[in-house]
Amino acid sequence: MTEPPSHLHIGAIIYPQVDQADFTGPFEVLSRIPHSTFHVLWKEIMHVPDRKGLILTPDTALADSPELDLLVVPGGWGQEALMEDQEVLDFIRSHAKRGKHTLSVCTGALITGAAGLLRGVKTTTHWTSFHLLEYFGAIPFPGRVVVDGKFLSTAGVTAGVDGALWAVELLRSQRVAEEIQLAIEYDPEPPFESGTPMVAPPEVVESVRSQYHRISESRLATARRIASQLGITVEG
Length: 236
Known about the structure:
- By secondary structure, the chain is an alpha/beta fold.
- The chain has one domain: Rossmann fold (3-Layer(aba) Sandwich).
- Helix content is 36%, strand content 17%.
- The protein has eight helices and eleven strands.
- The strands form three sheets. A seven-stranded mixed β-sheet has the order 5-2-1-6-7-11-10, sandwiched between helices. The protein has a two-stranded antiparallel sheet with strand order 3-4.
- Helix 5 runs antiparallel to helix 6.
- The relative contact order is 0.14.
């Protein structure tokens, strides 16, 4: 009789102003792994509004989290506050020190970088923040999903689904990942060629870039401040 696989503990940090799809996309995939428990984490058990006001609710406080086999760090406009939140950064560092997997989604990579974990690590993130990765000592590496050792990172928002499927393969097997992909019928057919700045019309790229201008400038200032704390020098 075949022994069942070891039970996995997977967790994702949510926080005010998170992009809910950065969390709910991976949740849809990872919560389907057989013999696993998914923990929704925040500093305390309270209602947490995402950037557009959708209410999310954690079920586990960071201090009460079990040891995790995979930690998901989503992005969003509220990510900036976490980049200097020592309780959150310490939690991420503690997880990484155990040699377990970490999956950053979108600008969640900036949080992981602020924890000092991305030095020399190939990493991707949302295209409007890609240039900030060097402030954390990361190796900016274009791609929808980038895997470097125990660190997985994804491009913006919807790429979290892809990253989660890759994580399933690492934690279980390609067969399990394929079964989950089929179960959720993940076979995207975008209606427009506008999913990345490389293929989107220039006027669309500029419009979206202008929408991100304010948060991009703020993220740059925070990244520079953290780079100084980490002793990282970025030319220019």
